[in-house]
Each structure stands twice: as structure tokens, then as C-alpha cells.
Amino acid sequence: MRLRDVASVLMMILLLPACAPVPAPTPASGPIMSTSDAEVRAVTERLFEGMRTADSALVRSTFATGVRFASVDAGGTPSAIKYEKSDAWLAAIATSGKRWDERLHDVQVRVDGGMAQVWAPYVFYVDDKLRHCGVDAIELLRVAGDWKITQLSDTRRRDGCRELPRR
């Protein structure tokens, strides 16, 4: 081998680590949250804080005009989609007497430009008694610079719910 060939091979070996992919963050290092992720989470937290404090105006402030609510009604056979009007839901919050507490865990936020989704398993309590659990799927769009909820869907079940501590 000529000296020039040896030098080329040596340069390739030395530069190889610089071309290696950067490893993704591990759970030990924690998730990296973008500004949009934090903003979306803040809207979601306001929604559930409004539910806990029976503040329907706070909850309403998180909604886009025309927001939709849907849940899987597993009580019937076959199961069906149940839609609820936002005004009826807001009235129920206002008269809940600060008895409702929906506790989220393992929240996942996905953002693409002006669209976001929150996927969050939850446990719902009334007067500190577990009533049901399931998953909330919350769709948000950025409207005039603010994130607004356009759709809130959930599943509900009574079996297999895990107790969560009060916040």
C-alpha cells in the first residue's frame, strides 16, 4: 500500500465517529419539551383546573368555537359513540360544587405546526371516590396565536382503574 492510501484509510477511520447518529434522549435524561408542547400542556392543565374548581369560565377559555365532545359509551351493546354539547358540559362543571377531580398520568403531547394532540390516561374522582377511568384524546389548533381545544374524546370504564394521588 502506498503512503497516500494509508493516509486516506486512516482519515476515514478517524472521521467515522463524527458521522455516527446522535442517540435519542433516554428516559433517565427525561423528555425534551418544546415551547409548543409546554403551551399545549398549559391549556390542558387549565381545562382540568377549571373542572376541579368548578370554574366553567376558565374551562370555556380553553375551547375553540364549535368544540366537540365525544365518548365511547361502552355501557350499551353494541357500544356507541355518545356526543355531548359543550354548553351542557360547562353547566355541569359550574354546578359540580368543586367535587370533580380528573387526574391525568403518562401524558403524551404531539405537535405539528398549528395542530396538537394530547393523549392522557386519566382517573376520574367525585368527592375523592374513584368513579371511572379511561383515556382522554384532546385535539388542539393554534387560533390567533393561542392553542384552543377543538375536540375532546374519551373512553370510560370502571374496571382496571389505578388509584392516583391527589395533586
Tell me what portion of residues adopts beta-strand conformation.
35-45%
Instruction: Indicate the CATH topology.
Output: Nuclear Transport Factor 2, Chain: A
Shape: globular
CATH classification class: Alpha Beta
- The end-to-end span amounts to 70 Å
Q: What is the correct CATH architecture? A: Roll
Task: List the SSEs and their pairings.
Blueprint: H1 3-15, H2 35-52, H3 56-60, E1 63-73, E2 80-84, H4 86-94, E3 100-104, E4 108-112, E5 115-126, E6 129-143, E7 146-155
Parallel strand pairs: 1-7
Antiparallel strand pairs: 1-2, 3-5, 4-5, 5-6, 6-7
Description:
The protein has 167 residues and is of the alpha+beta class. It has a single domain (34-155), classed as Nuclear Transport Factor 2, Chain: A (Roll). Helices cover 27% and strands 38% of the residues. The chain is built from 4 helices and 7 strands; from the N terminus they run H-H-H-E-E-H-E-E-E-E-E. Strands 1, 2, 3, 4, 5, 6 and 7 form a 7-stranded mixed sheet that branches. A hairpin with a 2-residue loop joins strand 6 and strand 7. The radius of gyration is 23 Å and the shape is globular.
